[in-house]
Design goal:
With 296 residues, this protein is mainly alpha-helical. It has a single domain, classed as P-loop containing nucleotide triphosphate hydrolases (Rossmann fold, 3-Layer(aba) Sandwich), CATH 3.40.50. The chain is built from 13 helices and 5 strands. A 5-stranded parallel sheet has the order 2-3-1-4-5, sandwiched between helices. The protein is globular. The chain starts with a helix and ends with a helix.
Length: 296
């Protein structure tokens, strides 16, 4: 780490050629790391848990849809060879997703993590001066966590109901996009294929980051290492509070299920709104009839 960074007092953003890329995969303690960075003065940290609007507002996830379409060739070469997916705005973009596009999406942040890890090579290329924190955990534990908190829910009966029935009715495709982006990143078509390569894909990701980032700009961090390595890497004093430990898995499962429930209720309203409106008008008419008979 160079001496200029060692004495940094005012955090810079990625777009200002500073910032931090936290490129450890989701389910490796990324939300705890985001809270730790907040505590160290990096106020604007983008994490998937903070992107709740994307579960209700299709427009909120369109920039990430473009990023996936541009940077995951498996999507358009294999999964959607004949026509773009429902979650991608028409017409499908053909221009590259480079520094200007990344600046528009994440350039105003001091740090990005979680979802950003899926675009690690592209972000490293776009922000060559950013420091990189690589959170990691045991691959076996990571595979179990990923399956129980994301994949199992999105591909289970709840996820199938939402993706195949509710989302087409509502015209929002957050969960379909989530599943497709995971397939695009893993480069598989089925959940069985994905589960078979969980740990292999994990190792490929970490080896790629290590190969792309110079050692002086890279911190490999395992939750439990405490403040010391992170503060030394970022040139920050050690806080006098414990390192954050957030139950991200529990929160993520709750967030996904709330989003699915909201989408399902929206779909039910689309299907039954006219009968409900007719019934309400009829009830109001009957109430009005009773009122006039009673008082006149």
């Amino acid at each position: 780490m160079d001496s200029d960074n060692k004495h940094e007092t005012t955090p810079t953003t990625l777009g200002e050629d500073g910032g931090i890329l936290c490129l450890g995969l989701f389910r490796t303690g990324t939300y705890s790391m985001a809270k730790a960075l907040n505590e160290l003065g990096f106020a604007r940290v983008l994490h998937g848990m903070d992107m709740r609007d994307g579960l209700r507002d299709d427009a909120a996830i369109q920039p990430w849809a473009r990023a996936a379409w541009a940077n995951m060739p498996f999507l358009h070469r294999v999964l959607y060879r004949d026509a773009p997916p429902s979650w991608l705005a028409r017409p499908a973009p053909t221009e590259p997703f480079e520094r200007p596009e990344w600046d528009a999406l994440v350039g105003s942040y001091h740090s990005v993590t979680d979802v950003a890890s899926l675009y690690a090579p592209q972000l490293i290329e776009a922000y060559p001066k950013a420091r990189v924190v690589l959170c990691y955990r045991d691959p076996d534990a990571w595979a179990v966590s990923l399956d129980t908190t994301v994949v199992g829910i999105v591909t289970g009966w709840e996820g199938l109901l939402v993706r195949r029935w509710a989302e087409p009715l509502t015209g929002t495709f957050a969960f379909t996009q989530l599943w497709d982006v995971l397939r695009g990143w893993f480069e598989v078509e089925t959940v069985e294929e994905m589960r078979a390569i969980y740990k292999k894909r994990y190792r490929v990701h970490y080896d790629a980051v290590r190969a792309l980032v110079p050692p002086e700009r890279l911190l490999e961090y395992r939750l439990g290492d405490g403040w010391g390595p992170l503060c030394d890497f970022l040139g920050k004093p050690v806080p006098d509070i414990p390192f954050p430990k957030v139950n991200e898995g529990k929160g993520l499962r709750l967030l996904l299920r709330i989003g699915m429930a909201f989408t399902t209720l929206h779909a039910l309203w689309v299907v039954f709104r006219y009968p409900i409106i007719v019934a309400m008008v009829w009830l109001l008419a009957k109430a009005g009839e009773h009122f006039w008979k009673y008082y006149l």
